Amino acid sequence: MTRETPRHPDLEADRRADRRTWIYFAVFLFASFIVLALSDQYDMKKAGAPYPDMAWVSQATSHAVILVMTPFITFMLSRYPLGAWRRTLPMHLGAVVIFSAVHILAMVALRKLLSPLIFGVPYDFGLADPSTWLYEFRKDVLSYALIAALFSLNRLAEQRSLEAEAARKEARERHRLTLKSGGRTFFVEADRVIWAKAASNYVEVITPDRTILARSTLTELERLLDAAGGRHVRVHRSHLVNMDHVREIEPTGEGDVTLTLDTGDTVPGSRRYREKYEAFLTPGEPSAL
Fold first, then answer.
1. In whole angstroms, what is the distance from residue 87 CA to residue 39 CA?
2. Which of 180, 189, 269 is closest to 225 using CA atoms?
3. Total domain count for the chain?
4. Domain membership flag for residue 283
5. Is residue 284 included in any domain, yes or no?
6. pTM of this structure
7. To 10 degrees, what angle do helices 218-227 and 130-174 make?
8. Cβ atoms within 10 Å of 100's Cβ, excluding its own
9. Tally of CB atoms within 10 A around 214
């Protein structure tokens, strides 16, 4: 009996991202086809060209070949990720040349086939002229770059979603947080988090022995702490605290407060979040409310 090889979650995440991206890209490509075909047809009519409807065939063949060639780009992204661009850039430069050559030759072949059938005239693209190749190549470089960026960004988003789910599972099962900072991963027991505050695209997590500047949002951190079952509460749009470390809550006016922790730190509390932290207060806990 052959044992089935387990699927790697990262590869599965890339496949999910690619399936979703294909839908976005197909819609974009169809819209591009309509807009460019209408524009070219209008310009050809204005210039008095004999077959202005040829614009539809020209754009259809170009867009169809790009769609068919897209798996080649996703294959290159899998083999040579853009994240390591210093190492993989030469590979993608070579791939652009292949992509452009196939795109030009295939669309010209289709046009030579369809033009006599539809319009009764032969089609001449001018492949003998090097400037024609250069003109198309410049457009193909842009197409390749846009497609590669679109699929890469969606793969990155799916990978981050996968990491977030793994972090929530770690919090639920082992009651510890997974925090990424400076290229390293820190595992912190949830109950050791005293308080935290938002810092632009990061969050400062304060523990008894260190402060970790993690690449996360306060909302994401709050979800992890909630999954870990801690007594951490959002008390302000940019602050959350471990209620076990709160020693005093002092009103400052208009419903806002200042929370004093057993570390001596003070944290602002907003009336917007008052119900949240009051729900954690039990009789006998220090409070000035």
1. 40
2. 189
3. 2
4. no
5. no
6. 0.72
7. 40
8. 21
9. 22
